[in-house]
Amino acid sequence: MLLHLILFVFTFPLTRAMNNTSKPGCPTKCGDVTVPYPFGIGADCFLNISFNLTCNTSIEPPKLSFGDGSIRINNISDLELRISTIVSYNCYDQSGTLVEGYPYAWTRLGSQSGFTFSEKNMFTVIGCDDFALIARTEEDDFTSGCFGLCSKAPNVPYGQCSGIGCCQISIPKGLSFYNSTLGTLQNHSDVWSFNKCSYGFLVEENSFKFKGASDLSTNYSDFLEKIRSTMPIVLDWVIEPEGNCNIEVNTCKGNSSCYDVEGGGYRCQCHRGYEGNPYLDPGCQG
Ligand SMILES: *[C@@H]1O[C@H](CO)[C@@H](O)[C@H](O)[C@H]1NC(C)=O
Ligand SMILES: *[C@@H]1O[C@H](CO)[C@@H](O)[C@H](O)[C@H]1NC(C)=O
Ligand SMILES: *[C@@H]1O[C@H](CO)[C@@H](O)[C@H](O)[C@H]1NC(C)=O
Ligand SMILES: *[C@@H]1O[C@H](CO)[C@@H](O)[C@H](O)[C@H]1NC(C)=O
Ligand SMILES: *[C@@H]1O[C@H](CO)[C@@H](O)[C@H](O)[C@H]1NC(C)=O
Ligand SMILES: *[C@@H]1O[C@H](CO)[C@@H](O)[C@H](O)[C@H]1NC(C)=O
Ligand SMILES: *[C@@H]1O[C@H](CO)[C@@H](O)[C@H](O)[C@H]1NC(C)=O
Ligand SMILES: *[C@@H]1O[C@H](CO)[C@@H](O)[C@H](O)[C@H]1NC(C)=O
Ligand SMILES: *[C@@H]1O[C@H](CO)[C@@H](O)[C@H](O)[C@H]1NC(C)=O
Ligand SMILES: CC(=O)N[C@H]1CO[C@H](CO)[C@@H](O)[C@@H]1O
Which of 81, 82, 84, 219 has the largest CB neighbor count within 10 A? Predict the structure, then answer.
């Protein structure tokens, strides 16, 4: 088998088409999502357990996730991973009673060492009488919060998340867990005619565009679906967060080099002018 593979490699020199590949003999995709090594689906297909993914094909579209199955992975690149956003929301009736909601949203990456929430994400609150708090530890020591306020729908600027109906704040680097809590200042009775529901979520900054008054008044199930399906959370990934290039042994294959990542861990990259998957033998090709 090994000889066969080597012969294959020499008979058909690896080209650009072989970049971002899975380990030979392993699934290359889950639905539309490409799974490049060091990630892999199934025994012996991943570098180590941090990159052990599962593909649940009994769901349509198939769901790629980390081991425990709870987090949907939408895209994997050589630096980042995109996962589905978890949205908290509250909906009120005219008198100010909470009628429907899920005020907490949390995501834990703790069991997948080597993954952290990217600084490209923004913690976002949509609403006219609302706030959300984001905690960065299991002990719920709240570190940050954001207010969405407005008194009239026509005053809400389209495309601008400035605190009027929409508020965004950045998150600290290196987070691997957050828990957000959404609440109302009054009870929505004053703004209910144009804003019945509020939302709180972490999201990739560039993928989210605030649609002003229409986002405030839209049917909440449509809004939740829009966020979940098109606006992801970005994760950074590294090999071995406690490691560095001085102790790396043979992870970076031919024609590639190791580089340390700020905040811990390392990654491999092809030498300039070479392409391929730097984690897989025979490495990158010119
Ligand atoms: C592989 O490399 C080629 C050339 O750089 C690029 O056009 C293509 O998008 C890459 N494929 C993937 C899956 O990244
Ligand atoms: C994961 O793989 C890297 C590279 O081979 C290695 O340095 C590291 O110790 C491994 N981590 C675990 C938890 O096995
Ligand atoms: C796949 O997803 C379905 C529906 O959520 C679930 O019932 C099932 O247990 C999952 N299968 C695996 C192998 O995780
Ligand atoms: C990889 O994940 C699957 C599904 O969670 C699990 O059954 C398997 O034991 C894991 N493999 C390793 C080496 O941990
Ligand atoms: C994944 O992201 C890359 C780069 O951002 C993009 O080119 C590609 O189309 C995405 N793939 C999917 C399935 O979304
Ligand atoms: C909501 O607030 C209004 C005005 O402050 C008050 O009259 C009303 O009783 C409140 N409704 C609830 C359900 O607390
Ligand atoms: C998130 O915070 C809420 C409120 O403090 C708490 O009830 C809930 O258990 C927390 N969730 C997690 C996973 O820590
Ligand atoms: C919101 O949209 C869903 C599905 O599109 C629909 O079933 C529901 O009745 C709508 N709710 C309201 C209040 O319009
Ligand atoms: C580096 O790339 C060259 C040109 O593609 C190739 O001949 C050589 O085998 C590669 N070196 C290693 C160590 O893989
Ligand atoms: C993980 C991985 O193999 N990433 C590679 C994907 O392709 C680009 C372009 O060729 C390379 O730069 C990455 O290293």
Answer: 81
> Whole-prediction pTM value?
0.85
**Cα(189) to centroid(ligand 6), Å:** 7
- Which is more confidently placed, 286 or 179? 179
225 close to ligand 7 (CB < 6 Angstrom): no
**Using 50, 70 and 90 to split pLDDT, how confident is the model at 216?**
very high
Average pLDDT over residues 91-111: 91
Flag whether pLDDT at 22 surpasses 90. Answer: yes
Instruction: Say yes or no: CB of residue 192 within 6 Å of ligand 6.
Output: no
Residue ID of nearest Cα to ligand 8 atom 10: 219
Judge contact between 140 and 113, C-beta under 8 A. Answer: no
- When the pLDDT of each residue in the chain is averaged and rounded to a whole number, the result is 88
Stretch 197-214: mean pLDDT, rounded?
A: 95
| Whether the CB of 140 sits within 6 Å of ligand 7 | yes
Q: Which atom of ligand 5 is nearest to the CA of 75?
A: 1
Measure 70 CA to ligand 4 centroid, in angstroms. Answer: 14
Sorted by sequence, the CB contacts under 8 Å of residue 167 that are 6+ apart come out as 124, 125, 146, 147, 148, 161
Give the whole-angstrom CA distance, residue 151 versus residue 165.
Answer: 9
The domain limits of the chain are: 2-82+243-270, 85-231
Element containing residue 57 per DSSP (H, E): none
